[in-house]
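Same chain as my last thread, 207 residues:
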Amino acid sequence: MPKVVDGDERRAHIADAVLRLAARDGLPAVSLRAVAAESGLNIGSVRHYFDSQHALLRFAMRTTIDRTSERLIARRERMPSMTDLPSAEIVGQLAEFLSELLPLDERRRVEVTVLVEFLLAARADPSLDDLAREAVEGTVTLARRALDARARTGRFAPLDPDVEAPRLAALLDGLAFRAVLQPDVAPPEECVAVLRAHLAELFREKG
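reply #2:
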């Protein structure tokens, strides 16, 4: 009997190959032939699911966004309520949560590297703008939700979320981009320390 191929599994396998290739050699290196070689498939198998480089890139970016979102949701579900936690523990919990967006290990380094490549490509290709905008706005939304949870505790001085949410998002983006573009300048431990210092300022109790 011919082997039954799981389409979703095969697409995910191809997406992983695209991410590795893009992170290692840049988006211009992502072609159907190169992805076939990276994934260990023949080019016909790749073409069966993706008919162009553009389709490959969009699917890889969609996969990256979805995987990151799934990890964040899973982490959020395991986090305790901020209401009764000491400030230091809130900072620790949030730092761990938001660190999903930082390239602190190989998996996240690949994802953030591809995100940087993709955002640069979207500047010149309007057909990629929707996913680029979703990725950028997603970080701001995440920061806004953390600040909304902060406000609900009633324990911290009021602040303007319209300013502080983009500010926290910009810090996360800046740390992530520096860490993939100049890893020697922004090693993982420094990224975490900077994030924790900023969160400690945000979650300093009244009085």
